[in-house]
């Protein structure tokens, strides 16, 4: 194959662009033309996926979920959404301590044990405090790691190992 006939996939070289665009070898102008930085900040200040309109920022967990959130459906692009999470841009995923388990990055530090081993609820990003209004304790349910939601406090049901969620409750 002659050099002029060799092709490369911009997707493999530039991870945050329109997927599947092919350029002649060495023609970086072609790739730059299709390059789109997909990182944005969502309304709750989390990293998100930027749509082609350059205004819509989609939560990572809404990417490749079978529902188009972008006008051009770029959040459901078949090349990006096949072989999850391998084909997703790295900023959209969180790798759990168990190498076989991953979650979307917006599910990290949300108070829920999404990884199954609480690895998504530890580290400097999560801090050491509970989300606003949550109660700090050692939960009975594996669904939570260090805190329980406010609706579980003073509901007459044990949610903390030490029953602290049911102490000093008004009748």
From TrEMBL:
GO terms for biological process: vesicle-mediated transport. Pfam families: LDLRAD1_C (PF25241). InterPro entries: LDL_receptor-like_sf, LDLR, LDLR_class-A_CS, LDLRAD1_C, LDrepeatLR_classA_rpt. The keyword Iron-sulfur does not apply. The keyword Transmembrane applies. It is a single-pass membrane protein. It is found in: Endomembrane system; Membrane. Gene3D superfamilies: EGF-type module, Low-density Lipoprotein Receptor. GO terms for cellular component: endomembrane system; plasma membrane. CDD domains: LDLa. SUPFAM superfamilies: LDL receptor-like module. Disulfide bonds join 154-169. Residues 129-167 form the LDLRAD1-like C-terminal domain. Keywords: Disulfide bond, Membrane, Repeat, Transmembrane, Transmembrane helix. This is Low density lipoprotein receptor class A domain containing 1. It comes from Erpetoichthys calabaricus.
């Amino acid at each position: 194959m002659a050099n002029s006939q060799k092709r490369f996939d911009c997707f493999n070289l530039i991870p945050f662009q329109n997927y599947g665009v092919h350029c002649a070898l060495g023609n970086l102008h072609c790739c730059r033309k299709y390059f789109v930085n997909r990182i944005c900040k969502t309304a709750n200040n989390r990293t998100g996926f930027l749509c082609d309109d350059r205004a819509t920022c989609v939560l990572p967990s809404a990417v490749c979920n079978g529902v188009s959130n972008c006008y051009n459906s770029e959040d459901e692009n078949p090349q990006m959404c096949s072989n999850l999470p391998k084909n997703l841009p790295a900023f959209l995923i969180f790798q759990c301590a168990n190498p076989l388990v991953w979650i979307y990055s917006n599910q990290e530090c949300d108070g829920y044990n999404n990884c199954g081993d609480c690895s998504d609820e530890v580290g400097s990003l999560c801090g050491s405090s509970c989300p606003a209004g949550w109660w700090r304790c050692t939960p009975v349910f594996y669904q939570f790691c260090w805190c329980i939601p406010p609706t579980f406090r003073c509901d007459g049901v044990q949610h903390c190992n030490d029953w602290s969620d049911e102490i000093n409750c008004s009748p």
